Amino acid sequence: MSVPAEAHHHHRDVQGGWLRPAVFGAMDGLVSNLGLISGVAGSSAGSQAIAIAGMAGLAAGAFSMAAGEYTSVASQRELVLAELDVERRELRRHPADELAELTQVYVGRGVEPELAREVARQLSADPEQALEIHAREELGVAPDDLPSPTVAATSSFAAFAVGALLPVLPYLLGATTLWPAALVALAGLFVCGAVVARVTARPWWFSGLRQLGLGAAAAAVTYGLGSVLGTAIG
After folding, report:
1. Mean pLDDT on 155-184
2. How far apart are the C-alpha atoms of 42 and 75, rounded to whole Å?
3. Which among 4, 215, 222, 224 has most CB atoms closer than 10 A?
4. Spatial CA neighbour of 165 closest among 35, 21, 58, 64
5. What pLDDT sits at residue 118?
6. 3-state class of 221 per DSSP?
7. 80, 123 Cβ separation under 8 angstroms
8. From CA 203, how far away is CA 194, in angstroms rounded?
């Protein structure tokens, strides 16, 4: 018996617009705030100053990430929409040329010329369908599936805030040394890396250890820098 197309497997959502900013936001929040707290702790500042610095880093970083993601995704979306308008005008003004162009696309993929032209003609009968096909073939985008700036900004803001909260949380609960914050943040990095591996199909331990190593390196460098500056300035 033949198996219907796509009945035997399914694909992950790779164009939802939320995964990249969420992952980047969480990792950035963890690493940047761990580094900030480590640097301030290395300068021999008190736990209250470290907690204030950590919360300030959380707020500033979350808003910065959200603004950056919104602006970048909105700009990309506007560029794509502008190019779609160009393609829409070309389909209206030069339908024969666009039909020949689409025919050549299918010929280039191994379809016989006559069959390629007939397929292109039938697909081009509906203007919106023709626009979608040309957009996919020429621009590599799906007009109805463009990333949302709001989704990207919200995902980035929330993920950064959660990630940045972990290193400062022990200080908010009364910790007076860096070790609890470092352990919580590094554990969070490992867990985040392992969770991401569930989406990207990479080994969970590899992704987790990679994020843990990057975070530990950042904390070590900033702690050393804070110690040097604290001694020099003090």
Report:
1. 94
2. 40
3. 215
4. 58
5. 94
6. helix
7. no
8. 8
Give the other-Cβ count within 10 Å of 153's Cβ. Answer: 23
Contact 210, 192 (CB under 8 A): no
- The whole-angstrom separation of Cα 31 and Cα 146 is 30
**pLDDT score for 143:** 86
Q: Do 61 and 197 touch, CB atoms closer than 8 A?
A: no
CA separation for the pair 233, 45 (Å, rounded): 12
Q: What are phi and psi of 13, to 5 degrees?
A: -75, 110
CB atoms within 10 A of CB 21: 28
Give the integer Cα–Cα distance in Å for 186 and 112: 58
pLDDT of 234 reads: 62
Q: Distance (Å, rounded) from C-alpha 130 to C-alpha 127?
A: 5
* Cα atoms in the Cβ-side hemisphere of radius 13 Å centred on 53: 18
The reply to whether the predicted model has a pTM over 0.85 is no
Token pair 């209206």 is found at 92
Helical segments of 14-136, H only: 19-42, 47-93, 95-108, 113-123, 127-134
Cα first-last separation, the chain? 79
- What are the angstrom distances between the C-alpha of 213 and each of 175, 190, 208? 24, 9, 9
Residue burial 200-223, b: 16+ Cβ < 10 Å; e: rest? eeeeeeebbebbbeebbebbeebb
CB atoms within 10 A of CB 115: 12
List pLDDT tens digits, range 93-152.
Answer: 999 999 999 999 999 999 999 999 999 999 899 988 989 998 888 888 888 888 889 988
